[in-house]
Specification:
about 0% strand; mainly alpha; 4 helices
């Protein structure tokens, strides 16, 4: 599990640092495959909850949120 967290942390860093849309798409696909939270991208791109006052993403907080996801079992 820790290796998945490390991988997600690294991929989020790469995702935010590249401007190449093709590379962003490949990274997003990788994240889709390993993130337990299907809404992982919302925490990064559609929320300010995990951004610091200087508008930098608190990657650790996002990774924690992603891995705290619990699906609803019906």
């Amino acid at each position: 599990m820790d290796s998945n967290r490390d991988t997600v942390r690294d991929l989020i860093g790469k995702l935010l640092s590249t401007r190449d849309e093709g590379e962003q798409s490949v990274i997003a696909q990788e994240l889709d495959e390993i993130c337990p939270d299907p809404e992982w991208s919302d925490h990064i791109f559609h929320s300010t909850d995990y951004y610091n006052e200087d508008d930098t993403l608190n990657v650790e907080a996002v990774v924690e949120k992603i891995f705290s996801y619990q699906p609803i079992i019906l």
